[in-house]
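Quick check before the chapter quiz. The format below is the same one you will see on the exam, so make sure you can read both the input and the output lines.
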Amino acid sequence: MHPILLSPAFFSTAVILTAILIDILFGDPPTVLHPVGWQGRFISTLWRCRPQAGHRRLFLHGLFIVSVGFLLTLGSTGILQWGIRQLAGSGTSPLRLISAVLLGALLLKGAFSFRSLLNAGRSVGKALEKGNLSEARHQISFHLVSRPVDTLDASAVASAAIESLAENFTDSVAAPFFWYTIGGLPAAWCYRYVNTADAILGYRDGDKEWGGKAAARLDDILTWIPSRIAAWVIVAAAVPSGLNAADALRVMLRDARNCSSPNSGWTMAAAAGALGVRLEKEGIYVINGEGKHPDEADLRRLSRLLLWSMVIILPPLILLSAVIFHFSSGEK
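Here is the expected output.
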């Protein structure tokens, strides 16, 4: 077999491209079979054992949930990655190399989701196109947001969908790939665990006000760089998408900090500027206040913008991953 095909750089590139192909062809498995679903059930089980009172106790319990899950994820994925690399480097057998790439790709695929993200946006858009507001509310509540949706009009539903899709481009795509690039499967899956813990516990109500602080703060830290990379990528993607890159940049720099989260506003503001729409979570934030109220057509344009964003973000991450894998393997 040619030496290039046995190099860590080739292996890393093949894993990423194969994982993307799997996502395009098959999307996500059912929740009961999805590793993120397993993480969610693990977190929820530990949360049910929380102390009944006391801010300090709730915080420490939340910190325990984050810490034990993080360490278990780090250890298990570290062992899996070691085994996959041993399989890939155990000789010149094409079957071994292909098997290692497929195993690595399947594990990486579980850490990110792109096809399902776009499909969720399309399901909301289709319901709005048909004028079926109740179905649009159901779709957005089922797939994208946890806020109450019963009083949202069509424009507010479109706004909430755009906000969630833009934010999830960071959480479900940019951040998992970024951390895979930096530290392989362990880093990608540790990020996924922290992000899942934040999604379940990171609320400012009841016991979760304190019990979810550890997950929320660690998620803020791990998402800080990927969210900004993703926002700049959306600005760049506005050009081939036929949207307004100048406004995407202007609104991103001006309104990214309008959200209480240090990260979520970046991609939302970039997308709002590119689309020329006003995004609002009533009583919480307004982004691009001078923009028009969004509709189902803007959801279609956002899908195009995110597709181009995916095309733009992957080459540099693949290159960086190949370089890091090359030097971490000890090859000269």
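If your answer matched, good. The longest strand covers residues 279-281.
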